[in-house]
Amino acid sequence: MRVLVVEDDRALRKAVVNILQDEDYLTEEAEAGDEGLLLAETHTYDLLVLDIMLPGMDGLSLIKRLRTKGVKTPALFLTAKDSVDARVRGLDAGADDYLVKPFAVEELLARIRALLRRDGKLAPEGELSYGPISFLPKEHDGCVQGTALKLTSTEYELLQYLVQNREQILSRSQIFDRIWGLDSEANDSIVDLYIHYLRKKLTPFGCEQMIRTVRGIGYMLKEV
User: CA–CA separation, 149 vs 101, rounded Å?
Assistant: First the structure.
């Protein structure tokens, strides 16, 4: 899962990032609202963790701008303000949850898991799966009905991303940005190549048709 943390308190931001990385989340960070907005508009994330009081653009304005532009990424606000009015304004602006500072690490992680489950990114027990496909995080591999697929690192990340966004159309550019990154020297044609690799490894299980081609756009994972 890829999380953007926007927080101007450097110590707190680094602490949150370290907590998330310890739980195997991929993280990016920003200390100002304008920087966070640019990242959220140009990259694909599974979750946003935002402070309300930010230099430049505040968190409320940031999430309003994203929602206006159709960005539906779940957002968790971290804030020192504990009034009902502050919570209502945050939720009305487009936030999905609200956590008051200081907070317990366990509660932060639980709220993140709850948001990802609500968004369909995690199964109810917190494990990622779809149909016959599941994952072996310790082995960094995927499996079908308990049999390992023997995926490469890139194949593993690609299959995870497809499962996280199952039954949703993903453009080639979305997939490329998420898996390879905008700084990659490759181009988005590499997406087609790795889709081919994945289908080949799913073929012995009769699951290759789960990865559907959406002509002129990209791909969608959906059970046949």
Answer: 43
Q: Sign of torsion, CA 76 77 83 88?
A: negative
Return left, alpha or beta for 24; rule: phi > 0 is left, psi -120 to 50 is alpha, else beta: left
In the chain, the amino acid numbered 159 is: L
Our CA angle for 8, 30, 2, nearest 5°, is 130
Q: Which token pair is 221?
A: 């994972």
Contacts of residue 171, Cβ cutoff 8 Å, sequence gap at least 6: 217, 218
Quickly tell me which residue has 């499962």 as its tokens: 163
Closest by Cα among 39, 19, 22, 43 to 30: 39
pTM for this structure? Answer: 0.63
* DSSP 8-state class, residue 188: T
The string of pLDDT tens digits covering residues 199-215 is 999 999 999 999 999 99
Q: How far apart are the first and last CA of the chain?
A: 25
Q: What pLDDT does residue 1 have?
A: 78
Q: Where are the alpha helices (DSSP H) in the chain?
A: 10-22, 33-42, 59-68, 84-93, 105-118, 153-164, 172-179, 189-202
Structure tokens at 112: 């993140």
d(C-alpha 37, C-alpha 59), whole Å: 9
Residue spans of beta strands (DSSP E) within 101-200: 129-130, 133-136, 141-144, 147-148, 170-171
pLDDT in tens, 126-139: 567 888 999 887 78
pLDDT tens digits for range 87-127: 677 777 778 888 888 889 999 999 998 888 776 666 554 56
- Write the pLDDT tens digit of every residue in 180-196: 876 778 888 899 999 99
